[in-house]
Specification:
This protein is an alpha/beta fold. It has ten helices and eleven strands. It has three domains: 56 residues, Beta Barrel (OB fold (Dihydrolipoamide Acetyltransferase, E2P)), CATH 2.40.50; 141 residues, P-loop containing nucleotide triphosphate hydrolases (Rossmann fold); 102 residues, no CATH class. The chain binds guanosine-5'-triphosphate (GTP), magnesium ion (MG) and zinc ion (ZN).
Length: 339
């Protein structure tokens, strides 16, 4: 029988059979899966036996390393218009990361009740001018007043979704406003206007045919999964222009290099280009790090494994380039402190 993992707690996996009763089975992982070092995630479709043992994992449609979930139809990226105010770099961080993982996104801007009419219209105009041209669906909501939720529900109908967003922006509050399931809602610290990471586990909540994964908020997500030259592909504004740059490996930062992006900077929202520059810096630092590591490995090989090693053969050189790529894929995240 097949089922979907709804929750994981210590060694227990809570699995809902796919075509069956409305029950949640409590399962353990078969030893053979543990030996294969297979890590089961919330959202995974698994094969179960005797209503109590997970014996296999089915192929994933997609998967994210953080939050650690799989088989998503849509990610809702939640920001709040105030307390905390929209953090465009952080928002772009999520968007580029999700583009990299090829997962569709819905943008939600919450707490619109905190702005007066004028400020709201100004904020809305700015947001739409940046993100509408990129093709995102966008909703403005107030979990407090339960406004904007009709459009929201329409866009998530029948889907398996996950909420991403900084702590305190109102992810759990929106969920509570949408469904009757009550989740813990935290407070926003009066000192720094940030949330306090109230949601600590990830689990699927199902209502009216929508499956929602509520996950803990996290903010630090560094660009150590992509090479600098490929970063532009995650920004549509840059991707559309880069074929016109003089050099194919252009990083779009140098005025002297006949760069189409620099020439057309007035057409790119300033916050987006700033985000690009910050992520580029991180991607470069990361590349430097993996290059150093590969170099160290090469030196090690030279010194210890082949005493007659005079020149690195072309095969070895291309191997080490491959190594850089592989290392780049070892996605590493650092999480903001949970306290
Ligand atoms: N004014 C206003 N306050 C809201 C709204 N939505 C949420 N809040 C408040 O913002 C605070 C944080 O809300 P949560 O729903 O806990 O935020 P979260 O995104 O789930 O935070 P984490 O679980 O820590 O990631 C709470 O005090 C909510 O009452 C809203 O639409 N308007
Ligand atoms: Mg929460
Ligand atoms: Zn360029």
């Amino acid at each position: 029988m097949q089922g979907q993992v709804y929750k994981i707690h210590s060694d227990f996996y809570y699995v809902k059979p796919i075509d069956g009763n409305d029950v949640i089975l409590t399962c353990k992982l078969r030893e053979v899966l543990k030996k294969q070092k297979i890590k089961i995630k919330v959202g995974d479709i698994v094969e179960i036996e005797n209503d109590s043992a997970i014996v296999g994992l089915l192929e994933r449609k997609n998967t994210l390393p953080r939050p650690n979930v799989s088989n998503l139809d849509l990610v809702v990226v939640v920001s709040s218009l105030l307390e905390p105010a929209v953090d465009y770099i952080q928002l772009d961080r999520y968007l580029t990361f999700l583009k990299f993982h090829k997962i569709p996104v819905l943008l939600c801007f919450n707490k619109d009740d905190l702005l007066d009419k004028n400020s709201f219209e100004k904020a809305q105009k700015e947001i739409l001018s940046i993100y509408k041209p990129l093709g995102y669906d966008i909703v403005f909501t107030s979990a407090l007043l339960k406004s904007g939720l009709g459009d929201f529900k329409e866009l998530i109908k029948g889907k398996t979704i996950v909420f991403l967003g900084l702590s305190g922006v109102g992810k759990s509050s929106i969920l509570n406003a949408l469904s009757k399931k009550i989740l813990r809602v935290g407070s926003v610290s009066q000192k720094n206007k940030r949330g306090t990471h109230t949601t600590r586990h990830c689990e699927i909540i199902e209502f009216e045919g929508i499956k929602i994964m509520d996950t803990p908020g996290f903010s630090r997500l560094t660009f150590d999964f992509i090479l600098p030259k490929d970063l532009g592909d995650l920004f549509d504004e840059i991707k559309n222009l880069k074929s016109l740059c003089k050099y194919s490996d252009c990083l779009h930062t140098d005025e002297d290099e006949d760069c189409a992006v620099i020439k057309n900077l007035n057409k790119i929202p300033i916050s987006r280009y700033q985000s690009y520059l910050s992520f580029l810096k991180e991607a470069k630092e990361f590349k430097q790090k993996v290059t150093n590591e590969s170099q160290k490995e090469e030196d090690f090989v030279k010194k210890h494994l082949d005493k007659n090693f005079v020149k690195i053969s072309s095969k070895k050189r291309s191997l080490s380039r491959k190594k850089i790529k592989q290392n780049t894929r070892n996605i590493h995240y650092s999480e903001e402190s949970d306290d």
